Amino acid sequence: MELTRVAISALFLLLAFGSSSAKVEEENPEFWRSQAKQTLQSVLDRELNTNVAKNILFFLGDGMGITTYTAARILKGQLQNQTGEETVMTMDTFPSVGLAKTYSVDFQIADSAATATAYLCGVKTNLNTIGVSAATRNGVCKSQKGNEVTSILKWAKDAGKSVGIVTTTRVQHATPAATYAHTASRKWYSDADMPAGAKKDGCTDISSQLLSNTDIDVIIGGGRKYMTPRGTKDPEYPRDYSSWGKRKDGRDLIKEWQSMKFGKVAHYVWNKTDFDAVDPETTDYLMALFEPGDLRFEADRDPNMDPSIVETTEKAIRILQKNPKGFFLLVEGGRIDQAHHAGRAYMALHEAVALDYAIAKGLELTKENETLTIVMADHSHPMTFNGYPFRGQSILGKSPLWAMDVLPYTTLMYGNGPGHKVANGTRPDIRNVNTNYVQLAAVPTESATHSGEDVAVLARGPMAHLFQGVQEQNYIAHAMAYAACVGADQRHSNLNGSL
Ligand SMILES: *[C@@H]1O[C@H](CO)[C@@H](O)[C@H](O)[C@H]1NC(C)=O
Ligand SMILES: *[C@@H]1O[C@H](CO)[C@@H](O)[C@H](O)[C@H]1NC(C)=O
Ligand SMILES: *[C@@H]1O[C@H](CO)[C@@H](O)[C@H](O)[C@H]1NC(C)=O
Ligand SMILES: *[C@@H]1O[C@H](CO)[C@@H](O)[C@H](O)[C@H]1NC(C)=O
Ligand SMILES: [Zn+2]
């Protein structure tokens, strides 16, 4: 009781103090009225864009749930010395917004493999499986046969467009893999990761499918070690055994890729110097693998060795947009998810901010009247945004009000994850701890799980209005395909016969 009374009086103190930190112009009602009037006018002035989408620019924030989205907005503003809550991210400017339901056929809360199969291939499936229907059993090669489903990247390529994948993870990771691979297990990165039975039954690893399935013009991310024979030293980390080649079949897929592209201008690069030297005007194919596995977190990136997601997005678009028939590009901010698994909101939010800068670059390089740009997440994470922090308080900070145990807590917390710590029956005292790194969690798990609430889908450009309402996640692939007239449903091109 006493504690509650203390907390309530503290709240009044906070409110009194908080109001003095508000911005003066915001105390004037006209500030809010005129801002709303401007917004209203821009919404009234919007015209439906019913063009056929020449290009599809698809940004996927892996694990970028709505809480992450809001918190990243605040961080982006705070990094520019704004209070942050009022900051407008590039993705905030998209006119159409909907929600996608992310459950998989077998689980209430999905993973990136099942969700990517839904939004890229248009079919919901089981956890851990990629580019196959739910008739496939997780990890069972035999059940994969005949149940393959293809992706919008393939439909776009078949329609004569150029296609690409850009990610901050290994290019064999679940999200990019769903554009080109069919596999009963997302973990079959190289043949060394496959059980003998699966190989005997004729299944192939994801890396080899990167070469043998759809002909992809631009491939940018990490994942060198799955491409080269076992024991091949990594060019960047020759002394680190764990980064050496993994393949047991002796194939060097990087060399094979280069010889497959003989007669074309095809570049393989593994560092920023060579990447910067790639001239998009003269390049037909680019494969860039900057790390043995996933790329580094943006906050840890060595800018002399690895380009940012803004730079990789720009290079990809410049190469792909030479095709007069247009392009499909997947850009994945893939490590928002991985940072959340580690309970590291600081890293996750910096990844999401970097993705927003890549989106801005994408809009700068394309025209709204011919490019359908989508931003969405595959699934969310159990991160919550709680307490009563002051306006403009660091999004990575602590609650000004303490809890019933008379200890503060972080504004961002996790339902589960490695941030759970109880010693001698009490929570850790974080009064003097920098909370930038691991946020508190209610329940101890080695890795935070995913969460199951809907994710936002943002759209801009031709047929953006198709991306509204509360939809099943697999609808997204069908709506993108309709907008661009790729795949089976060609009705939109008949309606726009002259195009
Ligand atoms: C924000 O403020 C700090 C400290 O005053 C300054 O060093 C930094 O350059 C500022 N950043 C921006 C983006 O204005
Ligand atoms: C980048 O890669 C090229 C090709 O392997 C190599 O010659 C060059 O030394 C590398 N640059 C750096 C800075 O490692
Ligand atoms: C898009 O707008 C540009 C001018 O910015 C124009 O040249 C082009 O024809 C337009 N494309 C379509 C499909 O309307
Ligand atoms: C727990 O309590 C014991 C005994 O009071 C003390 O020695 C120990 O340091 C405490 N552990 C932590 C993590 O506070
Ligand atoms: Zn995950």
TrEMBL record:
GO cellular component: plasma membrane; side of membrane
Cofactor: Zn(2+); Mg(2+)
Class of the enzyme per the UniProt entry, highest EC level: hydrolase
Keywords, sorted A to Z: Cell membrane, Glycoprotein, GPI-anchor, Hydrolase, Lipoprotein, Magnesium, Membrane, Metal-binding, Signal, Zinc
Protein's membrane topology: Lipid-anchor; GPI-anchor
GO molecular function: alkaline phosphatase activity; metal ion binding
Name of the protein: Alkaline phosphatase
Subcellular location: Cell membrane
